[in-house]
Amino acid sequence: MNETVIEVSNITMRYRLATERVDSLKHFFVKKIKREIRYENFFALRDVSFSVNKGEVFGIIGNNGAGKSTLLKIIAGVLKPTTGAITRKGSIAPLIELGAGFNGELTGIENIKLNGLLLGYSKKFINEKLDEIVEFSDLGKFIHTPLKNYSSGMKAKLGFSIATVVQPEILIVDEVLAVGDINFKEKSEKKIRSMMEGGTTVLFVSHSLGQVESLCDRVLWMEHGQVMRIGASEKVIKEYQEASKSK
Ligand SMILES: Nc1ncnc2c1ncn2[C@@H]1O[C@H](COP(=O)(O)OP(=O)(O)OP(=O)(O)O)[C@@H](O)[C@H]1O
Description:
The chain is an alpha/beta fold. The chain folds into two domains: about 5-90 and about 170-245, Rossmann fold (3-Layer(aba) Sandwich); about 100-165. It has nine helices and nine strands. A six-stranded mixed β-sheet has the order 5-6-7-3-8-9, with helices on both faces. The protein has a three-stranded antiparallel β-sheet with strand order 2-1-4, with helices on one face. Adenosine-5'-triphosphate (ATP) binds near residues 17, 62 and 70.
């Protein structure tokens, strides 16, 4: 029987956007005190529900602004939904907002140590795994350079290498593979596949439909914060492409 590891129940995420234009922070507070700031409700997610089974590779697709990253952040526990509930079973490695825990002044090596601690790895474990992380990251001599000199792809490589040195029960991958070069893409796809074989559940967000189709069992297509379709990858991707064409 299929075991559910992620259950998303009626998630709604509301952002409040200030509708006034203010030129400075001072101006903002003056207006706020005078209660002249008005807010508009913006729903990034509306009543989203689905579940993901253990060992499944689950893709999320949709146009820019559809709500994919917001949904992943809620599942990862980085954001709290306005209403609705999430249940999650097992350890999680969220590869989202890579670099959020990075420090631009520190070198690649130093960031591995810092980020590893943030991910809950012990010092001993990080030291044991350091060579493996450095090798996988393909950063060559840049590993000894401060991160502020890295491109976004280089940061993504480092983040992926750190997070996947352990086998989490749930791996969340948001566009990470899109910024890596072709060699790294192949390598990281291989790593994701080996994790899948080891039983890891993967949530994968990407605009690369070919990659989604080749990696994912099922796909969720979102539009304007709502679920359009959930189903077998090939079928849902085809429907999404047809809908995009006819727009
Ligand atoms: N902190 C925030 N405050 C207000 N609105 C936000 C915030 N974060 C995201 N949004 C809005 O929520 C909507 C969904 O954003 P989200 O980043 O989840 O989309 P996405 O599907 O991941 O897009 P993309 O494919 O471009 O990465 C967008 O309209 C965005 O402008």
